[in-house]
Design brief:
Length: 100
């Protein structure tokens, strides 16, 4: 759910900024993402915030980037099972299990 909120925020931001995504996820709050809780992965003990989200962000992508490129993903260790949630440029979110 957090990555979907972040995705909506990223695409709204890009619509207002010539198809460019922000330099950092924190720039989305509070205009494009209305709650700082969106930056906090519920699977972690740490508390993510706009200054230090629980997600890795791929700076430099735009709306013109190939749709299946990863733009945001869980930090290493967010999930005990070793996998991660991945947000693609097209807005899709998927679970990627641990490498075998």
């Amino acid at each position: 759910n957090n990555l979907r909120k972040i995705s909506l925020g990223l695409h709204s931001y890009a619509a207002d900024h010539n198809d460019s995504f922000p330099a950092g996820l924190g720039e989305l709050y509070p205009v494009y993402v209305d709650t700082e809780k969106a930056f906090d992965c519920p699977a972690t003990k740490s508390v993510g915030a706009k200054e230090k989200p629980d997600y890795k962000y791929a700076f430099g992508l735009t709306e013109l980037t190939p749709s299946k490129e990863t733009i945001v993903e869980d930090l290493d260790g967010n999930h005990n099972r070793g996998g991660r949630n991945i947000l693609r440029v097209d807005g899709s979110v998927e679970w990627a299990g641990p490498a075998r």
